[in-house]
């Protein structure tokens, strides 16, 4: 029997792909999410809010080797509207998970942090030595969670993901721009581009992110903060063109005012990922979008 991994936020987008990879690699999977169990969930499922002390049950009933902590409210704009919720679901939940992980002898915790902790980059590409700064409650709760994990005494790897995209991402709310454009173009709706469209992002496929999450359990690396990114910049205009081609969309985008507070350019240096985990993200943006289209055609919209 393989080692046992607790995946928090296991009904979410990145978890869906991470769990498929864990399953392929022979890990025993325990999932926790406050949402209902997704269809075909691969493992033992607990429908519990992880801010609750009730999570002790998961640790008592299972011998957990590793935790991949993905549960969070991932929206920057929602965090501005409701910082209390972010504080609970992102920070307090992390404290709760760390507390019981330490108590029950978890070997390593893998944490999903974010490029948002770099705020407005002072240089590009942004490496892990870049100063941390916060321009949203979301980033604050992620930064505070990173600190608590470091303090907790459990071995850890903190991953700072760039912009993750792929099949299964929720296109509502303040979802990633890829999910939004993909959904709108699939339904032949108009596309709105804020500002010039020249602003750039570092889009990484969830397939690469899932592979890295699992690799983190299999390697000896510990107590490191590592960017998970492609180190490639794509402008919003380019993104529009790639999705347009894949979906045979033929409307012109509508340009509108730049949103105040939007970061102009964000690219993360991934040298440390290569040096420590020997991993280079391999999914090219066009292939990642094609994969979304294929899965959407076969499996339909959102799962989970
Ligand atoms: N998607 C991205 O581009 C991106 C970028 C950087 C970091 N991240 C981080 O990666 C992680 C996963 O992101 P995602 O895009 O898969 O998000 P998601 O919203 O698809 O999944 C998060 C899951 O966590 C669950 N959850 C939240 N609070 C909970 C609680 N208190 N108790 C139980 N379950 C709870 C939700 O129900 C949801 O199923 C998050 O921590 C996010 O901050 C995501």
Task: Explain what you see.
The radius of gyration is 19 Å and the shape is globular. The chain has a single domain, classed as 3-Layer(aba) Sandwich (Rossmann fold), CATH 3.40.50. The model has no long low-confidence stretch (mean pLDDT 95). The protein has ten helices and 13 strands. The strands form four sheets. It has a seven-stranded parallel beta sheet, sandwiched between helices. It starts with a strand and ends in a 5-residue tail after the last helix. It has 304 residues and is α/β, with parallel strands linked by helices. The structure holds nicotinamide-adenine-dinucleotide. Nicotinamide-adenine-dinucleotide (NAD) binds next to helix 1, helix 4, strand 5 and strand 7.
Please give a quick description of this structure.
This protein has one domain: NAD(P)-binding Rossmann-like Domain (Rossmann fold).
**Cα distance spanning the termini:** 26 Å
- Report the sheet-strand fraction: 15-25%
Alpha-carbon Rg, integer: 19 Å
Number of strands: 13
Number of domains: 1
- Top-tier CATH class: Alpha Beta
